Amino acid sequence: MFVKHVEFENYRNLKNSVFDPGKGINVICGDNAQGKTNLIECLWLFTGGRSFRGSKEKELIAFGETNAVIKTEFFSEGREQTIEINIEKGKRKATLNGVPRNYLSEIVGKFCAVVFSPDHLTLIKNGPDERRAFIDGAICQTDAMYALLLSRYKKILNERNNLIRYIPQDRSLMETLSVWNETLAAAGSKIAARRAEYVRKLNLPAISFYDGISKGRERLQIEYRMNCKADQNGDEKEIYNKTLEKLINKQNEDISCGYTTSGIHRDDLMIKINDKDARSFGSQGQQRSAVLSLKLAEAAVLGEEKKEAPIILLDDVLSELDVSRQSYLLTKLSGMQVFITCCEKTVSSENVVYVENGILSEDKEV
Ligand SMILES: Nc1ncnc2c1ncn2[C@@H]1O[C@H](COP(=O)(O)OP(=O)(O)O)[C@@H](O)[C@H]1O
Ligand SMILES: [Mg+2]
Q1: Is residue 112 within 8 Å of 302, Cβ to Cβ?
Q2: C-beta of 14 in contact with ligand 1 (< 6 A)
Q3: Whole-model pTM?
Q4: Does 140 share its domain with 284?
Q5: What is the pLDDT of residues 306-350, one digit of tens each?
Q6: Full domain range(s) for residue 347
Q7: Ligand 1 pocket, mutate which of 11, 28, 29, 38 (most atoms under 8 A from CB)
């Protein structure tokens, strides 16, 4: 897919402007704090996802204004499509191809993108929540039903947690707990099987990208590690049995803690470099390369499943790579529409846009 046109109204400091990117590599150039990341963030919002900077909706609206509108025309699924997002009163509302949608989730999967910014290093540095969110977000872009599975699991987990808190006062509720164990294990095993399958798909491209970025000096390994200790290649049935077994074994512990201590909400994506946990032992550079490889692999899997490449958003990535790694990256991205921010125009591209104080222009002298 590719983006043809973008329009902003009261969006952050980009004020009221338009952007007509080219099909290949688009370089977004400018000094610090001019609006480059704002532009990348805006493109990402068309996926229906939340801001990758963790910003609240109202932070997206230009200072002093009450609403912001962003619009895009893009080419995907063999035709031109449009998305318009209106941000007002802490909410976002989307219109897809002229039809207003009730939920933002209805546009997920229409505008596919993969984003990488220095903030994404938290994928390795932080706890398992972010790694699960990475896998879940990636699956959601190709499978709308998966988001429903996730919200169902969350609901069941809440119900079980509520029940657990009442058990010390009313032991007769123990009988009901076994039903919730089964329901939770059933919903959870579907999710875990899907996540493990996704990680298997991610594996080869991720290893290959890391190999390329590290010039063959280091090896990346990824593995979906289940809290129930089922094998990552295990099927849904095996995951169900092991999850249920653990839920039952930990019942008393759960009751004394007041929440569910086992289940797929405790699973993790293990990321290793040369057999060592990248979180504890990886250098900053290794961690960055590992996340970049995961993101590129995400794009490869997404492209394969959708039968068209997603757009690639790279914020402040180039300055961190030496020239040979930069050229490796750009070669790997050829054929896709890419948006890269940088302070100096180091990449040769026909499509360069300069950002100065929120104003986009094709010439530097603005
Ligand atoms: N809601 C907003 N309204 C107006 N300006 C904003 C808003 N949010 C951020 N900014 C401004 O945007 C600039 C930062 O933009 P950013 O895209 O992060 O910069 P960079 O070019 O370094 O990536 C800052 O000058 C900040 O004041
Ligand atoms: Mg920036």
Answers
A1: yes
A2: no
A3: 0.93
A4: yes
A5: 999 999 999 998 888 888 888 899 999 989 999 999 987 667 778
A6: 1-112+310-366
A7: 38
